[in-house]
């Protein structure tokens, strides 16, 4: 058996075409979706992520503003900019690129974003709404994973799901979404005993730990759906410098029924769902 690829580039392009049409309909009513992105410091990976997000907005017909600050900026300066953007009717989504420098309290920065503009879904109010299964902005990466299941017709009801990783950005919200969809969910982490045994039970396996090729073929149940959220750059060997996921693609693809590649899997869908949340925010603003 060779796993069927869940192609994030293809699905993302399909969804973005629909977003562009909805953005044009909003523009005809005088409302152009607007996203503001805040970048602090000069981390190369963060710069790439921000550039990709801004470009995606422009291609979808959105308005996008980028605000950059030096790494040693006083936190209050960034908080003042967020307050200004909260009050700007042309901005429907505010994104602060993580990680932030050490002088910042990241939680305080995220909670400074107005709930109706928290298109990353990281503000405590939106996190609580997700926990309760209430309408909210869903964190973009788990939201994108759920779109994979929907598009491929993969039912989650009654399935055994294992999420490897417990971050606030991916692991925890991913587990909540799977739980709301009817799966039985186990969250594994660095202190989990016999990780391989947990993984081998999973009909749905989501790897989000940031460790290259940690999940190998002998850890995967035949016919499982494997979602690789990790993006790692190999440091050693003949493939040094290349990107890989948390899943050893070469060994797992011959065991799983479905698998996401790295790159080209979850990454494009994260940006796609950022557009989805920003568009939804603009539509709410118009209706209000």
Structure commentary:
A six-stranded parallel beta sheet has the order 1-11-8-7-5-6. Helix 2 (44-59) packs across helix 10. The longest helix is centred in the last third of the chain and has 22 residues, at 266-287. The protein is 42% helix and 15% strand. The protein has 288 residues and is of the alpha/beta class. The protein is globular, with a radius of gyration of 19 Å. The chain has ten helices and eleven strands.
Overview features:
288 residues, alpha/beta, three-stranded parallel sheet, 10 helices, 11 strands
Write the layout of secondary structure elements.
Elements: E1 4-5, H1 8-28, E2 34-40, H2 44-59, E3 63-69, H3 75-86, E4 93-96, H4 106-112, H5 124-132, H6 140-152, E5 160-164, H7 171-180, E6 184-188, H8 195-200, E7 204-207, E8 225-228, E9 232-233, E10 243-244, H9 249-252, E11 258-259, H10 266-287
Parallel strand pairs: 1-11, 2-3, 2-4, 5-6, 5-7, 7-8, 8-11
Antiparallel strand pairs: 9-10
Helix pairs in contact: 1-10, 2-10, 6-7, 6-10
